[in-house]
Structure formats: C-alpha cells, structure tokens
Amino acid sequence: MKRALLFLAAAALLAGCIRSVNEPAAPAAPAPAMPAVAAGAPATAWVQYAPGGGAEVRALDVAGKGCPETLADGKPLALTVRAAATKDFPALCAAMLPDHIASLTVAGLALGVPVDHPRRILVLGDTGCRIKGTYLQACNDPKAWPFAGLARAAAAMKPDLVLHLGDYLYRESPCPEGNAGCAGSPYGDNWPSWAADFFAPAAPLLQAAPWIIVRGNHEDCFRSGLGFLRLLGPERFDPAAPCNGHLDPFVVSAGGQAIAVMDSASAADTPLDDKAVPDYARDFAMLKTLAKGSPGHEIWLASHRPIWGVITFKGLPAGGNATMIKAAGDLSAFKAIQLMLAGHIHTFEAINYQGHKVPPQIIAGHGGDNLEVTPVDLRGTIFQGDSGVHVDTGLSVGGFGFLMLTREPGSEGWTIQLYDSDGTPEKQCQFDGQRVFCLQPK
Length: 442
What we know:
Layout: H1 2-17, E1 45-49, E2 55-61, E3 70-72, E4 75-76, E5 80-83, E6 91-96, E7 104-106, E8 109-110, E9 120-124, E10 131-132, E11 135-136, H2 147-156, E12 161-164, H3 191-199, H4 203-208, E13 211-213, H5 225-231, E14 250-254, E15 257-262, H6 277-292, E16 298-303, E17 310-313, E18 316-319, H7 322-328, E19 339-342, E20 348-353, E21 361-364, E22 382-383, E23 391-397, E24 401-406, E25 414-420, E26 425-431, E27 436-438
Parallel strand pairs: 9-12, 12-13, 15-16, 16-19, 18-22, 19-21
Antiparallel strand pairs: 1-2, 2-6, 3-4, 3-7, 5-6, 7-8, 9-24, 10-11, 14-15, 17-18, 20-21, 20-23, 24-25, 25-26, 26-27
C-alpha cells in the first residue's frame, strides 16, 4: 500500500513537474522586430535528413529576392518554394541533394554535407529559452540561457551529423515590462521568435553538419506546430491544411546507422490520454515494419518524450510516459531497437533496464531551457503503468550540455562523451550495442 500511495503521488506530481507537458497554449502574438538578444545573424540555410534517408537543403528567402543560388559540387542546384511568404514568415525554398556530394554552398555560404558513414553524431535537445506566464528565463544572460555558446562549442567539434531531440521554441508570452532578463524578446509562432530562439543561436551548428529533426511537445499544434511544420517538418508543407498533430514515424539511413524518428509531441506523460493510445500503438507497429526495411542496420529510436525517463518526487526517482507505455503493449516493437534517445526531461540520463525487453535510454534534454533536478542514482525508480520495465542501472548528470557519440573504424560500439555548455568534457559512457556503461555513483 505504501508503494501504491507513493506511485499515485508521483503520478500526480508528473502533471506539473515537467513544466512544459500540458500547459495551455499562449495567446497569438504579433511579430515584433528581431531583438538584440539574438547572437549574430540567424541561419537562413541548412541541411536536414528527410524520410527514407535522403538529405534536403532548405533556404529562407528573408530578403524577398527569390530562392538563393545553390551549388552542389560546383553545379547549380535548383531550389523550389516549399512554403510561400506570409505576414509572419519569409518564403522557404528546398531541394533534395544528389547522393555523395562533397560540397554545398547556398548564396556563397558553405554547408556541411552528408557523409557515407557518420562517426561523430552530436546529440542535444530542449534548447529554447522559456518565457511563459510566470516562467521567465533570462534569455539575455548567456549563463542562464547558454544555447548560443553551446552551439559554437559543438560546431567547433566538427560533427558528421546533428540530432536535435525537440523543443526549439519556448517564447510563448511577452516579456513583462521592466524585466531586463528577457527584455526585447519576441514571442509566439512567427519568424522573429524562431530566429531568436533557434535559428540565430544555432547558426554555426546548422552550418557545420546535416541535422535530424525530432518534433517536441513545444511544437505541437497548441504552440508552434504550424511554424515547425513549415520550417523543419519532414513532410510536404500545405499552408491550406490544418496543423497535423501527429506525424508518422520514419527512418533516416545515414550510412550504416539507421535512426527511427517518432513524433511523441502529443503523447501526454500524465494523465493517460486514451484517445491518443491508438495513434502510438500504430507507431510501434510501424517501427517493426521500418526495422525490417533496414536490414543490417543498427536501429536507434529518437523521440522527444522518453517512454521510461526519470524525474524527482520528494528526492525519489519516478516517471514514465503513461500514454506511450500503454501503447507499447507487449514491448515486441523494441526487439529491433538497440538504443533510445530522447529529450523532454531537462538533464542528462543514461539508463539500462532490467532484462532484455527494452533497450537502453539516453536522455539529453539539457541544451538550454531551465534545468530539472533528478537523483544521481536512478535505481529504484517507480514508473507509471504495469509494463514490467524497471531500472537496472542508471545515472543523471546535472547542468547544461550536449553529447557526442563517436565510433572508431572497425569498432562494434560507441563512445558517449558528455560535454558542458562550454564544450568541456564531463562524463564518458560506452555503448556496446546492448547496454550503456557509465561510472556509477558510489
């Protein structure tokens, strides 16, 4: 009974502990001018992977002069309009890249191109600066919101691939008058907000390497969903269509590495959303099919919300996503998955689960938004539901930062190096294809 009461209390806390999960939508906002807080000019061109494994170059026509000149291996590449300009957004152009190109420039700017076998995969998530109601992060203070410096440090490490685990735009409300910490900030789902929260601070990293984009709950249809689908969404953009609240999973094949991208933006952590369970049950069924379509590849699952992630309740570890746990059913969809990567919880976690029903979990939600506090030792976690999943070993490391997964030629495993926001190494783990090994707390 004591354990049951603890679980019920933990479940109640879950509704508010992860602050961004079920907050109401912010009011619609005008598009003010770009604030001084943006560190440098926003990126207007980048490369991102598309469903099926191909890569796409996207370029914003901020100046209104038409799609910019683009050269792939020195040859012209014709961009077409993906999304026409509106009062809130500039036009966006795009084109699929030819295979195996060695160079790419957009309006004279050199961009990183896909490599055949990425061996340096940079992982980050939850990078925006929170301004909503009484939650007022000091976006003008690089210590309180370090994403710009983090992106510069990460870009200097020359990754082959960047994986962003979602939550790009947190500026939902106007900064209160007289608040120097966020003064001048735009807000709402418009280009000035996207530029300030993501495209300006991320500019050097967007230039450095191709990206895999995961949708976060801050990009659901009650927040910045339409802006996300326009700018970063994986599917063809239709301005006349209503906001799509749930996208199908897809697999990105990057050399010998396959990453399944799952849209968990609308999967409520708690309480259980029975109406959404069928959508996610179909997603898990699709994962089996997607895995069969990628023979010989390691399959990693990238999803914003972790299914069995850990938060803190009165100093004790608790958590779990009630909606996805129920949708996962008999857990057979995880047989083909070797590693799970997620954000949403604003810290770093590395978790191995008991038995072999589900693969290890890495959580990297500490890229810029206000941090969570979780226990260092995650053993003894009480998860929602009755999935039979329990923590075997697990640890959490606090502070802002990002990860670099590296693989040496001929190696069977990956090194997971954790960095702080300045690019200083913190902790190192090893992933051998079955478990993550980190130095456990004493």
